[in-house]
Structure formats: structure tokens, C-alpha cells
Amino acid sequence: MARPKGSLNSTTILAKQAFQLAFDKIGGIEALAEWARENKTEFYKQYARLIPIIDIQNNNYRFVIQAPQPAVTVEEWQQRHPEVTLQ
What we know:
Blueprint: H1 10-25, H2 28-38, H3 40-48, E1 53-57, E2 60-64, H4 74-80
């Protein structure tokens, strides 16, 4: 039986869990902070990918989030979430 459209692949879930466990085993946040101090440029590149970008348009602020290519189209997402209005 195929998984429902839009649901996470069990391999993806297991991979994320494995990375979390490995992160914890190699020192977690303290090890990341140490690496960041030694590799500031690379750290800021990676960090910049995670934070929203402020886009000033017609004197209004809106947040644009950089994200991977979505698994569904905007139209499909809107059909699944009619309660949300996109601008």
C-alpha cells in the first residue's frame, strides 16, 4: 500500500532521527558552537539558509522563507488548506 500523498517517507524520518542521535553523540550544541567558532564563514552561510529574509515591498514588510522545493504545488497545498489565504 502506498503512503498518503504529502506524508513523510519512513526512510526520511529514520534518517532525521539518525542524524539527531549522531549530533548528540558527537557533542551536540557545544560541539556545533566549537565548530562554528572555528568555521565562522561556513556557519553563517548555513545559518542564513535557516532564517527568514525580510523583503521590503511597497513600504510593507513580509517574510520570505527560503525552503527546499515543496513536495506539492501551491495549488495542491491551497486545496488541502482552504482556511489559509496566500497573498
